[in-house]
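debug: dumping io for the single-chain case to check the tokenizer round-trip. Nothing else runs in this session.
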Amino acid sequence: MEQEHIMDRSQRVALQTGKQLLQLLAFVIHQSYKKYKEHSNHGEQNWRQFNESGYSKDMREFLEGEVNLDKVKKELKKSGVRFHFKKETDGKYQIWFESKDHVVLENSINKAINDIMKDPKKAKDELLKKPHEKTPKEQMAAIVKDQKAKGKEAVTKKTKGKAIS
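debug: decoded output
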């Protein structure tokens, strides 16, 4: 009888210990998940994910030029900014970011400007797209621009020649 009482008591202690251990494990997993979600929200977001946060949003507009957007995205992600690029129909790009990251964005822009001022050639090599990184549309636009600068037409119009008789 006393032996059963001791076994029953040890089973309750083991059950309580197991329950507390599982609660601790659930808490640790929940905290890890929150930390993971917090860190995974940096960088480029799709429009829906970007608008889920409660922070106010700001926007800057850039012309689609020779700037390599992939490198800009990489720099913004490195600085921990949540952002979204939106392409407009007129060839402009909008970069949307949270207002709280305005200072970080300005600092990265100022850093880029200072780098350009210190060593323009190095900055040009880093920021401008290489010919193999350009899309075919951008390559054609560059060729047409070069031809117009030389004073030639990019494509000459051909007239119908004499037929063979």
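debug: round-trip ok. The beta strands are 43-44, 57-63, 82-87, 92-98.
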